[in-house]
Amino acid sequence: MEVENATEVNLEQKKKHKGKHDKPKPWDEDPNIDRWKVEKFDPSWNPDGLLEVSSFSTIFPRYREKYLQEAWPKVKSALKEYGIVAELNLVEGSMTVSTTRKTRDPYIIIKARDLIKLLSRSVPAPQAVKILDDEMQCDIIKIGNLVRNKERFVKRRQRLVGPNSSTLKALEILTGCYILVQGNTVAAMGSFKGLKQVRRIVEDCIENKMHPVYHIKILMMKKELEKDPALKDENWDRFLPNFKKKNVQTKKVKSKEKKPYTPFPPPQQPSKIDQELESGEYFLSEKKKFAKKWQEKQEKQAEKTAENKRKREEAFVPPKETAKQDSNDSDNKEDVTALAKSLKQKAKEFGKKKSLQNINAEEYISAPTAEPPSKKKKKSKHT
User: Fold this and answer.
1) Taking the complete model, does pTM exceed 0.85, yes or no?
2) Residue 203 has pLDDT above 70, yes or no
3) DSSP of 292-324
4) Which residues pair with 188 in a beta bridge?
């Protein structure tokens, strides 16, 4: 039994370590080693240089010609330090970079290629030269073919830039990348992590998936969550906001009703000559045709002048008075005359009574009119 157990242990050990490279190394668990760090290239690693000449060329737009001509000496001197030759061809409108015998770093030609790409996409030369550093990367995002409608594309591109470039500046601060929106492309420079974020934000904006402002809010929250060491290994989805896309109601296109299919073509419309033949104008002389047209013109003109005259005279026609208005006016006149009579009667009575007692005139007038005293009939002496 002991022999069998020993053989099983030996078999397990053999399965774990097939060769010398599978054995644990002392530096595997060393916390001081940063495996993501990109070490700076040392020319002593490649003393003999490169065997073949590698070159890249790219064309640039015509409006960049003057600027490139002025900034080319600085670009040339920056590439010369790494053993790269740069050539500017103004006739063909192209830039070319190629390796030489002095080139030691094999990857620097890729960096030089990115440099001329950025220069052709309107990135300033002092900013574009920074791509030659090992820690700096670049990404040129093509956005021209993401939207078909040109007006919609311009609006969404402006949405990415924001008012006074405020949105673009916020994205640059949060992602740690340099971003330039030019024409149908977006040029970005920074770390791999930042470039990945920038590409996602740009594509979501142009495809109308999410507004850049919402991405900015999410990035700001992530920055705050990074500061907390307790949340380092946890999922942050519960802290991040979920922005739901709202479908804006658009105008529905009125669909035309399809007519029933008939194999026969529609009837041909009569031509001008056919119409003249029907009316008989075709056989008239030029003089008669002209006279007929002139007469029709005069008739139309007379109708128009008569209509205009009628419209002008409408303003001076008094409105018709109805029977109701006449009856109302007569009632009002009767009320006024009755009021005048009552006031005269009260004035007479007030004059008579004023000498006997003090009476307020306003109260007396507002009081209802008293019935006049009835005169008693004197009995006649004659029986």
Assistant:
1) no
2) yes
3) HHHHHHHHHHHHHHHHHHHHHHHTTSPPPPPHH
4) 139, 179
How far, in whole angstroms, is CA 215 from its chain's centroid? 17
Three-class DSSP labels, 20-39: HHHCCCCCCCCCCCCCCCCC
Give CA separation, 300 vs 88, 284, 296, 312, in Å: 75, 22, 6, 19
Question: For residue 134, what are the contacts with CB-CB under 8 A and spacing of at least 6?
Answer: 38, 39, 40, 41
Cβ neighbours of residue 124 under 8 Å, at least 6 residues apart? Answer: 71
Name residues whose C-beta falls within 8 Å of residue 211's C-beta, 6 or more positions apart in sequence: 159, 205
* pLDDT, tens digit (0-9, with 9 covering 90-100), for 210-219: 899 999 999 9
* Percentage of residues in the chain having pLDDT higher than 90: 46
**Tell me, what amino acid is at 170?**
A
The answer to whether residues 66 and 57 touch, using CB atoms and an 8 Å cutoff, is: no
> Could you give the angle at the alpha carbon of 163 between the alpha carbons of 157 and 169, nearest 5°?
80
What residues are paired with 180 via a beta bridge? 187
Residue-level pLDDT at 294: 93
d(CA 217, CA 334): 82
Q: In Å, what is the CA distance from 27 to each residue of 19, 23, 31, 34, 35? A: 18, 12, 9, 11, 11
Helix (H, G, I), strand (E, B) or coil at 138: strand
Q: Which is it for the CA torsion 86, 92, 94, 99, positive or negative?
A: negative
Least confident of 147-151, 249-253, 336-340: 249-253
DSSP state letter for 285: -
Per residue, what are the HEC states of 357-368? CCCCHHHHHHCC
Q: Where are the beta strands (DSSP E) in the chain?
A: 55-59, 84-89, 94-99, 137-142, 178-182, 185-190
pLDDT tens for each residue of 34-52: 777 778 888 888 888 888 9
